[in-house]
């Protein structure tokens, strides 16, 4: 990788990050595997489900802060498992209290347990309150360009449209919408949910996304540590391809070598 690309970074809420891969901390078999996979991913931002992970609220249980020290990673507490704005807001407040005033959060308010699609009405309501309370909100939403713009205009620090349903591994199902969201945005756009393998991550980056957040794609792999390494490379390859500018797609063949000046 060139020196230029080594310094390629993106910023969220005034903080710059070199790694464009954000990873979750759940679903691993144990804390050792969690740490090994996250190390292999090269991620700087790790997200934790506050309602499902001990970050100090349960004194008698293993604390993930000991496995992944905040001095080494930027924490992104999330509101996974919240189905209304009130619960999501309360969860973010708890995270800020437990993490000594930490303001960067991932907001997700789900609509139902089967699809885990976002409830965008409740998401908007929660985002408005949290932003007024000085949270830096990275928000999970559907792949609707209109909703993405509304969340940006509300003041969200980053907008995170799904590629496919959470944990499905289906990859980017609507490339045109994701590209439209990217082209119209003035804040970072990160694909969140639905990535299954490294090529899916590369596709998201080739569309111009600033990053990708994933958990199940790594944790549910047969070899999570190896998959984490693959995802890191997929992100890098997709970003470089986007910066390079791909050739136009053509309907018919085009010879790789010029036909002018042939000797026979």
Written account of the structure:
There is one protein chain. Helix content is 38%, strand content 16%. It has 10 helices and 10 strands. The protein has a 5-stranded parallel sheet. Strands 6-7-8 form a 3-stranded parallel sheet. The model has no long low-confidence stretch (mean pLDDT 92).
H/I helix tally: 10
Cα-to-Cα separation, first versus last residue:
41 Å
Poorly predicted regions are none
Coarse shape: globular
Q: How large a portion of the residues is in β-strands, by DSSP E?
A: 15-25%
Major sheet size, sense and barrel closure: 5 strands, parallel
Spatial order of the strands in the main sheet?
5-4-3-10-9
Helix content: 25-40%
Class from helix and strand fractions: alpha/beta
The mean pLDDT is 92
Radius of gyration computed on alpha carbons: 20 Å
Strands, helices and their partners?
Layout: H1 3-6, E1 10-12, E2 15-17, E3 21-24, H2 31-41, E4 45-49, H3 64-67, E5 74-78, H4 85-98, E6 104-107, H5 120-132, E7 136-141, H6 145-154, E8 158-161, H7 175-184, E9 190-192, H8 198-206, E10 211-214, H9 216-219, H10 224-244
Parallel strand pairs: 3-4, 3-10, 4-5, 6-7, 7-8, 9-10
Antiparallel strand pairs: 1-2
Primary descriptors:
alpha/beta, single chain, 10 strands, 264 residues
Condensed summary:
With 264 residues, the chain is an alpha/beta fold.
């Amino acid at each position: 990788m060139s020196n230029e690309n080594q310094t390629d970074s993106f910023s969220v809420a005034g903080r710059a990050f070199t790694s464009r891969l954000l990873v979750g901390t759940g679903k691993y078999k144990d804390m050792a595997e969690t740490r090994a996979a996250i190390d292999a991913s090269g991620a700087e931002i790790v997200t934790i489900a506050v309602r499902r992970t001990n970050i100090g609220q349960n004194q008698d249980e293993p604390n993930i802060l000991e496995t992944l020290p905040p001095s080494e990673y930027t924490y992104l507490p999330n509101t996974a498992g919240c189905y209304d704005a009130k619960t999501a807001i309360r969860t973010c407040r708890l995270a800020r209290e437990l993490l000594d005033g930490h303001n960067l959060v991932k907001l997700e308010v789900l609509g139902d347990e089967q699809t885990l699609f976002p409830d965008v009405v409740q998401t908007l309501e929660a985002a408005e309150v949290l932003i007024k309370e000085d949270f830096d909100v990275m928000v999970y939403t559907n792949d609707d360009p209109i909703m993405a713009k509304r969340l940006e205009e509300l003041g969200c620090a980053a907008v995170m449209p799904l590629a496919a349903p959470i944990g499905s591994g289906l990859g980017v199902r609507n490339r045109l919408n994701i590209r439209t969201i990217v082209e119209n945005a003035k804040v970072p756009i990160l694909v969140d949910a639905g990535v299954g393998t490294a090529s899916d991550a590369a596709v998201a980056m080739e569309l111009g996304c600033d990053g990708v957040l994933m958990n199940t794609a790594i944790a549910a792999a047969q070899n999570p540590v190896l998959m984490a390494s693959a995802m890191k490379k997929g992100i890098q390859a997709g970003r470089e391809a986007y910066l390079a500018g791909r050739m136009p797609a053509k309907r018919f063949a085009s010879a790789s070598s010029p036909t002018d000046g042939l000797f026979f």
